[in-house]
Amino acid sequence: MRASLIQIDVNEDESVESRRRRVASLVRAQAGADLVVLPELWTTGAFAYEGFGSDAEPVDGPTHEAMAKAASDAGVWLHAGSIPERADDGTLYNTSLVFSASGDLIAAYRKIHRFGFDKGEAVLMGAGRELVTVRLPETTLGLGTCYDLRFPELFRGLVDAGAETLVLPAGWPERRRAHWTLLAQARAVENQAFVLACGTAGTHAGVPQAGHSIVVDPWGEVLAEAGAGEEVLTVEFDPGKVATTREQFPALKDRVLGLEPPRRP
């Protein structure tokens, strides 16, 4: 299976409309890949909080239109990263879109864990409530977004739902890049799954981005890693390695659930 992660430079001097056209062209250039992955909030920038409201769009808005056509033109499955979604009731969500190779919208995932604590995304956007998996011909994807990477129970839930390849678009800051690499490898090892983590380059609202998109195999081996700038990271991997790894080292079978809380003295 061939996957291409497009690490987009989100330049504040480039308009959303111009970036959307440019990214669609980059997607079309990946014809021959099985899966293409884009980063989190690449239309506006993950830390450009002031633009969330003005750049928000419905799921079937202009980004949907552009990415559906790009996926169809290239004949690739496309995880189109995430957009600031405005729901029918006016609530904003950080929502990922996945398109089939024919350009059909197959899944939308609203980010569950919102970053910012008491500001930014955490207060401006609603939280998703549903785990989302997507069945491709070669593998089953489990969807997460950026800050989700810090919460292993989400990915364990995705594995329980059949996920074999964990896909994570992100706008991860450079100052915590070591965590990005460490956590991507940890999620791969503990779930015996591939991890495809696609970040952004550039600077969002004064926050330098980590870049370094990464593909990790079920044993935690890094198969490919990007640099800091805009880059297309393409890797070939065998989805069958998930089943082989889980058979050779069946750690998931030894999980103990429903433990009782500690007794108070």
Automatic annotation (TrEMBL):
Transmembrane segments: none annotated. PROSITE patterns: CN_HYDROLASE (PS50263), UPF0012 (PS01227). One of its GO terms (molecular function) is hydrolase activity. Gene3D superfamilies: Carbon-nitrogen hydrolase. Residues 1-239 form the CN hydrolase domain. Keywords: Hydrolase. Pfam families: CN_hydrolase. Belongs to the carbon-nitrogen hydrolase superfamily. NIT1/NIT2 family. This is Carbon-nitrogen family hydrolase. It comes from Streptomyces justiciae.
